[in-house]
Every structure is written in structure tokens, then in C-alpha cells.
Amino acid sequence: QAKREGMDNYQLYHSGLNLQTYRKFMLQNDLRKALERNELIVHYQPRYVVQEKQMMSVEALVRWNHPDWGLIYPGEFIPIAEETGMIGQIGKWVVEAVCKQWNEWKGKGLPPVRISVNFSGQQFLHKNMEEEMKSIIKKQEVDPTYLEFEITESTLMSNQSAVLKMINSFRNMGIKISIDDFGTGYSSLSYLRKYPVDIIKIDKSFVQDHSDESRALITAIITLASQLKMKVVVEGVETNEQWEAMKAMKCDEIQGYYFSRPLPSLELEQFYARQLEGENIRKAEMQKEV
Ligand code: C2E
Ligand code: MG
Ligand code: MG
Ligand code: MG
């Protein structure tokens, strides 16, 4: 009935659908046009490397600047992209945007940062993914060692041999692989042994639940990861207490609102510039001392 000609949005909204259903219906339709209308944007969240005491990489997080609904977060539209088969195109667009951004920062003379990109399961296992990534990276002339692809535990468990093959081919290109939201899926720790991944990102639920059990699990993951030569990033650090606790537990990297929220590219640039200045100041002071 909704497809009936001449039925405008107002009528559709008043035809008995609740707001949530209405919104989803509209978003499903609009997502097809979002790419050509340039409505997607990427924000970048700094990741802090504990040992170096500075940001050395950022996570790319897509947003949709919808003309009527305002800023829409990926938690809402990525599932719609998967349902409607748009995820492949959107994923490609994100990687392309990230590569262009990397080059823009390079052109401005900023020391390169690594950029991590999220992949949904469907997207990671898409049949031409490997070739498509190769061609984007080649066209945009990005050093692939500055790229990181994040996949989730559920992706790891979905089609094990295909995932393993994909991980290996991306790693052969020089791209880092991380497991995102680690601990929320139903895989066992022994999965880590099976997959040659570089980084484990512990899900924010572990740091935000201050229980002894959660802290013990984080410690166990950090210990195991170091034996497997993997780095550990703890996500979702919001308070000073959590920040200090994670540093004390010797995780490799910390990501969360406490260090920085995801930022539009220009703000990220300013954040980075401030860090670089701070570093320059420190170096200058050290020179004075000798
Ligand atoms: P994620 O990959 O686990 O990304 C981290 C999410 O946690 C982001 O939400 C980020 O804004 C949020 N976050 C960061 N620090 C904190 C903190 O201290 N506290 C809290 N409460 N949250 C924090 P966001 O940007 O809404 O993204 C949600 C999810 O959408 C991502 O989770 C990722 O799975 C997915 N996503 C984002 N961008 C893309 C994309 O380009 N492609 C695909 N396939 N998925 C994406
Ligand atoms: Mg992620
Ligand atoms: Mg995560
Ligand atoms: Mg995630």
C-alpha cells in the first residue's frame, strides 16, 4: 500500500505505521540515494598508544548526514545496508574516503597515522572484495601498511575457511587485521590461535563493567595476546579511573571518550596538530637540557 502512487510521506506516516517503522521504511529508500548525494561522512576516533604516550592511529566511523533526520549513526543504518544489499557499495565508499583522507593529511605534511576501517561479515566475504580493495589502494596510492581492517568475532565464526583466506590475502598486502568487540561473541579464546590477526579490540562492556570478573578477563586476554604476539586495544574508556586501570593492566592501546570522541576530519587534524606541537615542545626542552 505504501508504494501506491501519489501517497506522500505525510499520508504514509498517518497510515497507521508507528514512527519507528516509518523511519526505517524511509531510511531504506533514502540509503540508495545517500551515496550519490554525498550524504555519508567519516569521523575519526583517536587511539592512544600507551607506550608512546600518543595517538598513532584512528578508527574511521561512518555517519549519515540525512537531510530530514539529521545525523544518523551506523548502528542504525549499517544493518539496513546489509538487509538491502547496499553494504558492499557503502563499504567501498568508506575505504575510498579513508584512502583519500590519508592522502590529504599526507599532502598537508602530517606524519602518517594508521586508519582502521570496520567491515561487516557480509562485506568482508563479498566475492570481489580482495580485488576491489587492491584497486582502491592502488588508485589512491596509499601505503597499505597504514590500513587496518576490523572484523568481528561473529565474522570469524561464520565461514571459517573463507575468512581465513581473506585475512591472509589482506595481510599479504600489508594490511593489519583486528578483531573488534572481542568478548561479545561466543567464540572461545582458542579461536585466537586459529587466526593470524594483529590486534584484539576488547569490547567496551568489559571496561565499563567494573567487576573483578571483567577485570580478570581483560588481564587474561592481555596475557594471552602478548604470547600470541597480538596487540590489545581496550575500547570504551570514559573515566579517569578506567584510564588508569587500563594503563596499569598494560594494554597496548586505549580508545574511548576519555581520550577523544570520534571527530570530523578537520577537528582530528587539529587534535593531531596539538599533539605534534606538544611533542615538538618536549623535544625542544630536552635539547635545552643537554
Ligand atoms: P565499533 O567498531 O565497535 O566502534 C566503536 C563505537 O563505540 C563507535 O560508535 C564509537 O563512537 C563508540 N565509542 C567510542 N568510544 C566510546 C566510549 O568511550 N564510550 C562509548 N559508550 N562509546 C564509545 P559508532 O560510531 O556509533 O559506531 C557503531 C558501530 O558501527 C561500530 O562499532 C562499527 O561496528 C559500526 N561501523 C561504524 N562505521 C562502520 C563502517 O564504515 N562500516 C561498517 N561495516 N560498520 C561500521
Ligand atoms: Mg570498530
Ligand atoms: Mg568495537
Ligand atoms: Mg563493532
Walkthrough of the structure:
This protein has 13 helices and ten strands. The protein starts with 8 loop residues before the first helix and ends with a helix. Helices cover about 50% and strands about 20% of the residues. The protein has about 290 residues and is α/β, with parallel strands linked by helices. The protein has an eight-stranded mixed beta barrel with strand order 1-2-4-5-6-7-8-9, surrounded by five helices. It is globular, with a radius of gyration of 21 Å. It binds ligand C2E and magnesium ion (3 copies). The site of one magnesium ion (MG) has 4 residues, from loops.
Strand segment count: 10
- Secondary-structure element sequence? HHEEEHHEHHEHHEHEHHEHEEH
Largest sheet: 8 strands, mixed, barrel
Mean pLDDT: 91
Question: What is the percentage of strand-forming residues?
Answer: 15-25%
Number of helices: 13
Strand order within the widest beta sheet: 1-2-4-5-6-7-8-9
The global form is globular
- What structural class do the secondary elements suggest? alpha/beta
Measure the end-to-end span. Answer: 79 Å
Rg over alpha carbons: 21 Å
- Which ligands does the model contain, each kind named once? ligand C2E, magnesium ion
Helix content: 40-55%
